[in-house]
Amino acid sequence: MTTYLIRNAQILGGAPQDIHIVDGVFAAIGENLDARADIDIDAHGLVALPGLVDLHTHLREPGREDAETVLTGTRAAAMGGYTAVHAMANTFPVADSAGVVEQVWRLGRESGYCDVQPVGAVTVGLEGKQLAELGAMHDSAAGVRVFSDDGKCVDDAVIMRRALEYVKAFDGVIAQHAQEPRLTAGAQMNEGLVSGELGLGGWPAVAEESIIARDVLLAAHVGSRVHICHLSTAGSVEIVRWAKAKGWDVTAEVTPHHLLLTDELVRSYDPVYKVNPPLRTAADVEALREALADGTIDAVATDHAPHPAEDKDCEWAVAAMGMVGLETALSVVQQTMVDTGLLNWEGVADRMSHRPARIGRLAGHGRPVSVGEPANLVLFDPAYRGVVNPDTFATRSRNSPYRGMDLPGRVHATFLRGEATVLAGELVER
Ligand SMILES: [Zn+2]
User: Fold this and answer.
1) Is 156 a catalytic residue?
2) Which of 298, 303, 311, 350 is catalytic?
3) Which residues line ion ligand 1, judged by CB < 5 Å?
4) Is the pLDDT of residue 338 over 90?
5) CA distances in angstroms from 18 to 40, 220, 280, 409, listed in the order given
């Protein structure tokens, strides 16, 4: 294996240190290391973080390879500093059986750019009627522990209760896409001032909050673990805060776009801003940032949702929902959380690596940057300033809401178990 000597990296933003990577692990860390390596990297001014872990990625394969494949998605992940991603189950066919999750898991291993941990569907075909083969997916080579019907809500309380009970046997977790379907029928954007002015169907905050309230109560009742996907409202934060204060096993994530963008952008009618859950108000954004800072929200998860141009270059009403996000996540977190003083780099490592790995029970990821640990690492340049150009992205799709925006920071290098997947800001061909 290639050996690396990284000079003067600021681990978690601390004082500059050298990092020696040999045989896939951190062999030595210290000042002025007396070591030799195949490749020397000058990391002056770069922050070193443990490889990022995404709890919520849509890789689209199998079935929508026109939007993304496991290979292009994992290349995008590496460019964003990720070493592990959880691949959501809403593919074609749906990842609701051992066969499909094993297929996705194998494609991930073959890609070599990033570990892919498949998420299994909670119900057969994401239809919300009948529990999928959760045990078989867990027992498969993919070792599934996170289950979600993401894109759809498990809205039947009895099915949700059974799923929560079932996954207790193997320390699994149900990741809920909290959206009460009847309250959001025909909804096009956040319900509020802007939707009223534009005359678009509103998506009320209570549609998210009522499901979260129900599910934290259900999880507590059966003594199981629930994870709430993409929190988007101030009220959702309050419910999760309350559930945690009760000592219940509840975790939550927020997307980068919900930390930065608001429903004011919908005035443009540009479908690039159409997303599920919808962009909310500035007050919601503020509450989400504070909750991520104080740990009420455990993790940043991208909800990377690639779509081909024809599904986005159309009228608002018929456009697909979702945004790509893997390659901009760390920059958005720097802008919204670090540059604002809400979170230091240690906090970023906690919310984007340690905690998501713990929620997904991913061994080998989310580990500290210390001697003997697997060398999953990202070197990030927080001083970089540039304009986002999605045409240069590694993802197959271009539906980024940040096109033309100034965002701080850039991934300089990413290492997966000691092998560079990105060097000097470029993908390493494997
Ligand atoms: Zn979702």
Assistant:
1) no
2) 303
3) 150, 177, 229
4) yes
5) 10, 46, 43, 21
